[in-house]
Amino acid sequence: MSGRDPGRRRALLDAADLVISSEGPEVSMAAIAAAAGVTKPILYRHFGDKSGLYEALADRHVRTVIAQLRPRFAEAGADLRGRAGATIGAYLDLISANLNLYRFLFHRASAEDTRIRSHMTSLVRSLGEELGGMLAAERMVPDPVRAQVLGHAFVGMVQSTGDWWLEHPEVDRAQVVEGLVDVIAAALIPRSGRASHAAGRT
After folding, report:
1. d(Cα 150, Cα 47) in Å, to the nearest integer?
2. Residues contacting residue 7 through CB under 8 Å, at least 6 positions apart
3. CA dihedral sign of residues 109, 113, 117, 118
4. 3-state secondary structure of 37
5. pLDDT for 195
6. pTM of the model as a whole
7. Do 181 and 97 contact (CB within 8 A), yes or no?
8. Mean pLDDT value across residues 23-50
9. Domains of the chain: total
10. Is the pLDDT of residue 77 over 80?
């Protein structure tokens, strides 16, 4: 809320981060409040309500992830596979290093709160729109509509596959990255190029 001390809000979010990371995504609101040294009503008062707390945590972490991915997929002069691989690898590293926070936001909070689910969807969609805009601006996909379709498809694919990979830690990270990069590279080959590749295989 605008009238609250931003330093106090940061301290409360820091405490929430620590207890979620240590105790897991099913941690209670009472435990989060206790870690922050306040009661639940006071915790909620700083964020409006429980949805406001979820939203503040989502903004803090999802926007941080997006900020770290942006320079990798927008790197000028790098080849397509290199950019895609660096971006996907960074994403997998971030979610695996912050596993409990990731599951708290994308599974627990999104499942129990329609407002935060809508907010999280909006954040992810904004990344798809940004990626689609970049694909069109760099003429990787000249048709802006197709660029948006692919931008959202790539973001959704990587997020879904990353979610699966977290449940299968025995799968080598490099194998996951390579498979996703193969799909992205194939989708960005011009249609004439795909036809010639298919003819060559035939």
Report:
1. 36
2. none
3. negative
4. coil
5. 44
6. 0.83
7. no
8. 90
9. 2
10. no
pLDDT digits (tens, 9 = 90+) for 40-60: 989 988 888 888 888 999 988
Yes or no: say if 100 and 106 are a contact pair by the CB < 8 Å rule: no
Instruction: Return the structure tokens found at 182.
Output: 């193969």
Do 78 and 103 have their domain in common? yes
**CA–CA dist 16, 13 (Å, integer):** 5
First vs last Cα of the chain: how many Å apart? 63
Q: Looking at the domain assignment, is residue 13 inside a domain?
A: yes
Does the pLDDT at position 34 exceed 50?
yes
HSE value, Cβ hemisphere, 13 Å, CA-based, for 48: 10
Verify that 100 and 27 share a domain, yes or no.
no
Residues 36 and 64 in one domain: no
What would the pLDDT profile of 131-161 be if each residue is shown by its tens digit? 999 999 989 999 999 999 999 999 999 999 9
